[in-house]
Amino acid sequence: MPYSPVKSSCLLPNLTRTVATAALVALFGVGTVRAEPKYGPGASDKEIKLGQTAPYSGPASIFSINAKVELAYFKMLNETQGGINGRRINLISLDDSYSPPKTVEQTRKLVEDDEVLAIVGMVGTLANVSVAKYLNSKKVPQILGTTGTDKLNDPKAYPWTTTFLSSQDVEGRMYARYILDQMPKARIGVLYQNDDYGKGYYNPFKSEFGERADQMIVKAEPYEISSPTVDSYIVSLKAAGADLVYLAVTPKFAAQAIRKIYELAWHPTVITLTSTASISSVFQPAGLEASKGVLTALWRKDVDDPKWSDDPDVVEYRAFIRQWVPEFSLNDSTQGYQTAVIIAEVLKRCGDNLTRENLMMEATNIKGLRLPLNLTGVTINVSPEDRIPWRSAHMAKFDGTGWQFVTDLMTIPPRP
Predict the structure, then answer these.
(1) Which of 32, 218, 195 has its CA nearest to residue 129?
(2) Mean pLDDT for the chain?
(3) How far apart are CA 356 and CA 347, in angstroms?
(4) 277-291 pLDDT tens trace
(5) Is 105's pLDDT higher than 70?
(6) How far is CA 329 from the centre of its chain?
(7) What domains appear along the chain, each with residue ranges and CATH number?
(8) pLDDT at 8 over 50
(9) Which end of the chain, N or C, is more open, meaning fewer C-beta atoms within 10 Å of its C-beta?
(10) Core vs surface per residue 12-37: b (16+ CB within 10 A) or e
């Protein structure tokens, strides 16, 4: 069933523009004539209509939490701030069941029937890839999708597309560089999801080892997202003699893999993705003791980690969750929260020029933006040439309670 449209928005301060506006008023006087508003489809004096799909049903339904938090955030903005720049946000969020054909069908409905201004925060790698060509052919903005696939960091092929997740290319290469620096003789076993999601993390990881890849990776096991369990694959990786396991998987399978490794009384180094390094949804189900020592790339504060319990960003975030989506766990909701914040910021920067062209201009000219919950030094940078939002993170180890940094901030530059 489709989720009912809601209206919303919460904004980040833009001191530079505020000062500039004040200076213009002082120079030309209060009576300066405002430029006439410009509108594209879905935008008016009173409303900004946006669209997205999410897997509310199907094998990846856990990720629908991102869309639900975005809906709640925009509802909060509508009710507490009157929307953005005086316009209420109407986000139409439809179920695609994590099925590309359904994603295409629902996206066509949003564009051709609902006539949305843009597709924003679309959930999932398969979803975003499946509609990118269509949306670009229609010149409809596809911005800040919750995917990190490098396939969509292609401004020539997809000039109307940006993404918003830790880049699969950056993250995979970061783990490989950490291994080469700290464990150059590791015997690596890989478990990866057999689709664009899993391969998107595995392929750059493997490529970073260059000619040594076949020597270092002793076994790579693909699994299907419909699989009930990955236990047999973990047994296979152990039998292959791996002493390091790289999990390019989703949360359910990360918990299974970590638990199975523990039950086998096997003690390899375990690296899991940022998206699965959740204390509440992965480590607690797997067992906190079983999860000790797991490594990941950390770029934002883990709101379940006691070290950040009094951090102002975390306090504000907790208050939002308690009031607007109290049914969700705190950690699982951070991605949707940050996505909604940056969508709102881009819309705010559009001012009264709510055309699709201007929306893309703002979405591809973000420099040095710090989002709530980001670690110090991790800022958002999106340009017409590079659509990857950030390239820095700390490698961190779970100690059974929270995270301990094991490296300084690591940065992965664009490929030559």
Answers:
(1) 195
(2) 91
(3) 11
(4) 989 889 999 999 999
(5) yes
(6) 17
(7) 3-166+310-385 (3.40.50.2300), 168-298+394-411 (3.40.50.2300)
(8) no
(9) C
(10) eeeeeeeeeeeeeeeeeeeeeeeeee
